[in-house]
Amino acid sequence: MNVPKTGYRVFSANSSAACTELAKKITERLGVELGKSVVFQESNRETRVDVKESVRGQTIFIIQTIPRDVNTAIMELLVMAYALKTSCAKNIIGVIPYFPYSKQCKMRKRGSIVSKLLASMLAKAGITHIITMDLHQKEIQGFFSFPVDNLRASPFLIQYIQEEIPDYRNAIIVAKSPAAAKRAQSYAERLRLGLAVIHGEAQCSESDMADGRHSPPSVRNTTGHTGLELPLMMAKEKPPITVVGDVGGRIAIIVDDIIDDVGDFVAAAELLKERGAYKIYIMATHGLLSADAPRLIEESAIDEVVVTNTVPHEVQKLQCPKIKTVDVSMILAEAIRRIHNGESMAYLFRNITTDD
């Protein structure tokens, strides 16, 4: 038998309009008031947090969206968590819809796995649980020493397709690369639609090919130590870009988890137009839309970009009317309620596959 607990508060980890708006939507659904705190930057850009009420012995949920200034948002979250920890909060749960640095989850040459570092920092600051949405790689959950609930936005995006795209039955789900094929297949199966995959890459000039993919050199170096001879490695070479599947006379819906640098999406849209698609939609959970992404989308063959409100993008929407937003505060609020009451989270993952 589940016994409801008493005493929990919801705080916003920054004072930006987007984070405050999402926090208010969540607290309204929960029927609680937003916790009183002040988060600001000192004149020397140091982050300062003042908690204006007692949190002793309570479970605290910190809502943090990640704006363009990612590092400041991380410090706000860390400082607020530590402030609540030192104020004797019982449990501190981070509600981070978009987990930053999630693309840096693999070792690249002499780089580092930054998402693992961030997971350790959050634990050290006092966070004991995280609610997030559509991690870039699900294996990131293994970086944490505490529970992680990785929610899915696909039910909301699928609902948008069914309700807002006329004649969606004539659509085809498109993966912009083979790596995104599993996610696209999951959407296609639930919508009972066909599937297409974009494979290969645009051919570039020789001056653009100095990125290491053609190394090691094809000629053996005979100088230096010759006691060990390794087999000669063949360079990777992708075929010219092509579409596997028939998109002629169809609505093309490209699905992905993050849309940031839109160059690949714009190129994919042009290719799909050439192959006969008459409308092109992009569905993504996290709309980072950095740099001049709004302008590129506005000038492209893309008809509409649909993202959720996990990341603030109000400025980008003003610059590009093609960008639409789907609200996911409902599932975040329900996750908070279930965790607080000790209820199972399985209901939030019904009909969700591991490929989403």
Give the SSE map.
Elements: E1 8-12, H1 17-30, E2 37-41, E3 47-51, E4 59-63, H2 70-86, E5 91-96, H3 114-125, E6 129-133, E7 148-151, H4 154-164, E8 171-175, H5 181-191, E9 194-199, E10 242-244, E11 251-259, H6 263-274, E12 279-287, H7 293-299, E13 304-308, H8 314-319, E14 323-326, H9 329-341
Parallel strand pairs: 1-4, 4-5, 5-6, 6-7, 8-9, 8-11, 11-12, 12-13, 13-14
Antiparallel strand pairs: 2-3, 9-10
InterPro entries: Pribosyltran_N, PRTase-like, PRTase_dom, Rib-P_diPkinase
GO biological process, one term: 5-phosphoribose 1-diphosphate biosynthetic process
Protein name: Ribose-phosphate pyrophosphokinase N-terminal domain-containing protein
Provide a concise account of the structure shown.
It holds the Pfam family Pribosyltran_N. The protein is an alpha/beta fold.
Question: Can you characterise this structure?
Answer:
- This protein has 356 residues and is an alpha/beta fold.
- Helices cover 29% and strands 21% of the residues.
- It has nine helices and 14 strands.
- The strands form three sheets. A seven-stranded mixed β-sheet has the order 10-9-8-11-12-13-14, sandwiched between helices.
- Strand 2 and strand 3 form a beta hairpin.
- The chain starts with 7 loop residues before the first strand and ends in a 15-residue tail after the last helix.
- Keywords: Nucleotide biosynthesis.
